[in-house]
Amino acid sequence: MEIAGLLTDALDRVRQGVHGVLDDIDEASLTYRPDPEANTIAWLVWHLTRIQDDHVAAVAGLEQRWTADGFYERFELPFDRSATGWGQSVEEVGAVRCRSELLCAYYDAVHEVTANYVATLGPSDLDRVVDERWDPPVTLGVRLVSVIDDDLEHVGQAAYLKGLAERSG
């Protein structure tokens, strides 16, 4: 298997998870919190998408879908356009309220750009340093694995929350 195929497979698994969570979900479930400080499904999916959008756009030299496709305006969130969810407060998590169709549209736009980008990669591309703020510096391969890992973790949390919300009525 080529590296592009491996990355595409992992990203497609994230996409399947996101769609599995967002398909046929009601608004109450999107904002369900098992306790007042818990993340919501809406925030988790928004955050995982923002991180992927931010990180992939940076390494690919592209504008984020968040701004290029007008999602920042469409979501109408009370955050700076550069917000990705990193380090947000409990109140900010609760402010992410939107329809599942909008979340899905944003995720799908980011997924498409990401899939198109990774399809161009070969093994030697993964060694390119993309972030020198860390020791050791972060390579493209490490950054992409980090994005996929973060996405899988958050989509798993969202799926778990969906089950809790459904059981709670």
Can you walk through the features of this model?
- A hairpin with a 6-residue loop joins strand 1 and strand 2.
- The longest helix has 29 residues.
- With 169 residues, the protein is an all-alpha fold.
- The mean pLDDT is 96.
- Helix 1 packs antiparallel against helix 7, helix 1 packs parallel to helix 8 and helix 3 packs antiparallel against helix 8.
- The termini are far apart.
- The protein is built from eight helices and two strands, in the order H-H-H-H-H-H-H-E-E-H.
- Strands 1-2 form a two-stranded antiparallel ribbon.
Furnish the topology, listing elements before pairings.
Layout: H1 3-22, H2 27-30, H3 41-60, H4 65-68, H5 71-75, H6 90-94, H7 100-118, E1 129-131, E2 138-139, H8 140-168
Helix pairs in contact: 1-7, 1-8, 3-7, 3-8
Can you give keywords for this protein?
169 residues; mainly alpha; Four Helix Bundle (Hemerythrin (Met), subunit A); 2 strands
